[in-house]
Amino acid sequence: METLLEIKDLKVSFDTEEGKVEALDGVNLKVKEGEFHALIGETGCGKTVTGLTILGLLDNNAKIEKGQVLYKGIDLLKLNEKQLQQQIRGKEIAMIFQDPSTSLDPIFTIKEQMFEALDNNSDLTEEKKLNLIIEELKKVKLPDVEELLEKYPHQLSGGMKQRVMIAMMLSCRPSLLIADEPTTALDVSTQAQFLKVLEDLRKETKITAIYITHNLAVVSEICDTVSVMYAGRIVETASLREIFKNPQHPYTYKLLHSVLGVETKIEELQEIPGSVPRLINPPSGCRFHPRCEEADEICKIEVPRMVEISSEHFVACHKRVIE
Amino acid sequence: MNKELIKVEMLRKYYHSSKGLLKAVDSVSFKIYRGETFGLVGESGCGKSTLIRTVLRLLKPSDGKIVFDGIDITHLHEKELKSFRKRMGIVFQDPHSSLNPRMTVFDILSRPLKIHKLAKKHDELMLKIVEILKLMGLQAEHMIRFPHELSGGQKQRVAIARALMVEPEILFLDEPTSALDVSVQAKILKLLDSVKKQKNLTYFYISHDINLIRVVSDRIAVMYLGKIVEIGDKETIFHKPLHPYTNGLFKSVPVPDPDVKIDKVPLEGEVPSPVNPPEGCRFHPRCEFAKDICIKEEPVLKEMEDGRMVACHLYQ
Question: What is the pLDDT of residue B271?
């Protein structure tokens, strides 16, 4: 499979009142065409910042210190705002966010908003646009589409709004979807419906996705490859099966064992000592070392490099590298 | 001592809305026994938060009966309620909004003691607060901090400590970990578990997270659109859910295992509005087993051979 998006050594910081926050510190990520690539980690690990950087949507206090974001061979970081808006956003790469009630504008109907997305990205006639919109809304299994078009966001449930977002995104035919916690605001039954819609779309459109979430169970439903982030770095990347059956990084292991499953007993839940470090003056060396039971001297001094330990399984941990 | 700590009978909480009568909680009955962990699970809007707030008498019930330790508290006045408030604690979902940002941890924790006149002197307060902070895995120095200086997990520990200050018999836990990361959630659940054992507490968990309810509870109740549809022993219900909603709900939960996938959508459609809910069984428009009777007649909870209760015409 071809690489669709490659992030190379990306470093992003934020200027805040308290000092410089090193939000991303040397992130490397390869997303292959057609795959669903999960970016998982806890609050503040840099998942969303990674997504926003790809689309050039960072706030003004953010600074891209170094790195490249290569999409189909083009470095997106070199494009200006106009180029990003005309050529990339929506058309090539689309993003959906966690809370669909804030992504849709409350004072416009669904129809108006769907048209707006298309107006930026297509030269079709009005009639063809409307047909396309209806087709996309049906694709995400929304009922009574004609009626729905005239509705306002507050008249829809959370699950329906999130499906409208997907339909809007699809109408522009992007190659890459960045989904940032798309089901976190939804109930489990709605989440199951939404995941099914995504899965069907995947079969039909061969779309590639970066799926940002903290929910490992959702990842196991829909993703092929998983990258685990911790404190601004990717610590492990592997196939879904490898991550779940053969996790290598101590953080990945602990994370997997703190998830509540069917057979979980409270006594068996894994605890990670301490808490996620703040990224103003983050820990030296491996950023996980203060919380890691296996850490020794080298972990405090040297940043571990990402090493391939078996085919397509990469891990950044000093204790997993056989010299 | 009464084995039944809480008994709720035909409890109703209705609201008048512009569109009609909103039946948030409709004829709900259940019991909570001393020492157990009772888990109430349901999706957003099913009425679970309204239910616990009504049981706690933070909301005025529209009808029905709430009995606490053998005493009917349904119609008690605020003054008479005070002694019961002390015996029932609550921990809310979001510690960012449940802790007053302008109070230090010391002030937050000393308030319940002052209100219930359990300690007056500064030394006494100090002693109790240091003790509870230690129990919560926090340090004495945390008492001079403000909530914004604490992490999400630490804030939730303070919220639990506040509920425990007056030595309640039961804790109502309303989504106590849903605002937290998984690794922090694991710590809080373990903490709550050990505190329960140490202090012989009773827990009433409310959550939309089915796995959470499964992990913590002894008995569970499943709520749909203001009604309890199934209630009983946790193992019995999880082993074989009988109500079609319970079954669909459990099947919707993704399992953190790449070999186990949700095969088809377990629950189609959306939860209807609690204003003018469907006639008969409220679940019938989404139920694949719905018969004529389900449209006409509302099913009531009926006890099965294994001891659980189900409200479904399939089992009447």
Answer: 87
Cα A186 to Cα A159: distance, rounded to the nearest angstrom: 6
How far, in Å, CA of B308 to CA of B246, rounded? 13
The shortest C-alpha distance from B47 to chain A (Å) reads 14
Cα pseudo-dihedral A294, A11, A217, B92, rounded to 10:
90
Residue B85 lies in a domain: yes
Residues 219-258 of B with CB under 8 A from A: 248-249, 251-258
Residue A165 lies in a domain: no
Q: What separation in angstroms does the CA of B113 have from each of A245, A314, B124, B166?
A: 50, 54, 10, 6
Residue written as tokens 């009955």?
A: B29
Tell me the pLDDT tens digit for each residue of B185-241: 999 999 999 999 999 999 999 999 999 999 999 999 999 999 999 999 999 999 999
In the DSSP assignment, the letter for residue B252 is T
ipTM value: 0.88
Residue A110 structure tokens:
């669904």
Q: With bands split at pLDDT 50, 70 and 90, how would you rate the model's confidence at A323?
A: low
- Integer angstrom CA distances of residue A69 from A4, A59, A305: 11, 17, 19
> Closest Cα of chain B to A217: distance in Å?
4
Which one-letter amino acid corresponds to residue B266? P
CATH of the domain at A44: 3.40.50.300
Q: For residues B282 and A111, what is the distance between their CA atoms, to the nearest angstrom?
A: 32
Other beta carbons within 10 Å of A258? 22
The total number of structural domains in chain B stands at 1
Q: Which residue of B has its CA nearest to A194?
A: B265
Q: Which B positions 125-184 lie with beta carbon below 8 A of chain A?
A: 151-153, 181-184
In this structure, the dihedral spanned by the alpha carbons of residues B245, A182, B180 and B207, taken in order and rounded to 10 degrees, is -10
Residues of chain B neighbouring A188 (CB-CB closer than 8 A): 43, 208, 210, 249, 252-253
Residues 6+ apart with CB under 8 A from A91: A121, A172, A173, A174
Residue A286 in any domain: the answer is no
In a domain, residue B115? The reply is no
Q: Over range A258-277, report the average pLDDT.
A: 86
Of A221, A241, A260, the CB nearest to B215: A260
Chain B residue numbers touching A217 (CB-CB < 8 A): 253-256
Query: With pLDDT > 70 as the criterion, what percentage of chain B qualifies?
Result: 99
B256 to A265: CB separation less than 8 angstroms, yes or no: no
On the CB side of B313, CA atoms within 13 Å amount to 18
- What span, in angstroms and rounded, lies between the C-alpha atoms of A185 and A165? 14
Spatial separation of the C-alpha atoms in residues A278 and B144, rounded to whole Å = 21
Compute the count of residue pairs across chains A and B with CB atoms less than 8 Å apart.
119
Pair B23, B279: CB distance under 8 Å:
no
Q: Which helix (H) or strand (E) holds B51?
A: helix B48-55
Contacts of B44 in chain A (CB under 8 A): 187
Looking at the 3D structure of chain A, how many domains does it have?
A: 1
Interface test with B, best of A17, A141, A188 (most B CBs within 10 A): A188
The CA distance from B86 to B307, in Å, is: 33
CA–CA–CA angle A31, A37, A42 (5° rounding): 120
**Cβ-based contacts of B153 with chain A (< 8 Å):** 275
Distance CA A306, CA B256 (A): 25
Q: What is the DSSP letter of A320?
A: G
Range of the domain at B42: 4-96+146-238
The terminus-to-terminus CA distance of chain B in angstroms comes to: 35
CATH number of the domain within which B214 lies:
3.40.50.300
